[in-house]
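Write out the bound-state structure for nickel (II) ion.
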Amino acid sequence: MLNFNYYGHSCFQIDDGKYKLVFDPFLTGNPQASIKADDVKADYVLISHGHSDHICDAYSVAINNSATVITIPEVTDFVGEDIKSIAMNLGGSVQLPFGFVRMVPALHSSGIGGGIAHGFVVNIAGKNIYYAGDTALFSDMKLIGQRDSIDWAILPIGGHFTMDAVDAAKAVEFLNAKNVIPVHYNTWDVINQNPEDFKALLKGANVQIVQPGESLNLDA
Ligand code: NI
Ligand code: MN
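---
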């Protein structure tokens, strides 16, 4: 049973029933937050880059859960010296008890000098999940989809800071992703989007719109 539990903005948990992976913990000050940082359960915390809307609660979630932070070295150093961490870099893969984590490029600024923004392909419960982080559209997304058959793509659609719905729809095509969950929209006025517009652009993929506080089963 593989579940996606959406906490708002780009913060979510993937839970295979044994391991809990939390992505980009931003709950404190997040107008969409459906959970308090202190209530988040995690075995691993994956961070796409150092902007505060992705990293702000990383330290507390890691410490509270004795969880392992997975991100690029400059960002693991920033989160704290007293956390458990796996520092990796673009193109690298790490085998973990649930599957693998592969770090893939993103096109975005870093928030922390040198700690460039990235995405992840996570293999868990037999599914390949691509989380783009914050990014513009780039044609090398095709390479990500060629390496791993993408069962679920979790993509920003809000525009302004990332790709918008039109470019995210093109990303789905490049990735050849079967199923898609949009994130990083409607948190603030500048990234307001109607996710139904994104859905309407995509005929070949299954788009699942998840509201903060809702869960989605990813086994399908
Ligand atoms: Ni960002
Ligand atoms: Mn962001």
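---
Residues 51, 53-54, 134, 161, 184 surround manganese (II) ion (ligand 2) (CB under 6 Å).
The mean pLDDT is 97.
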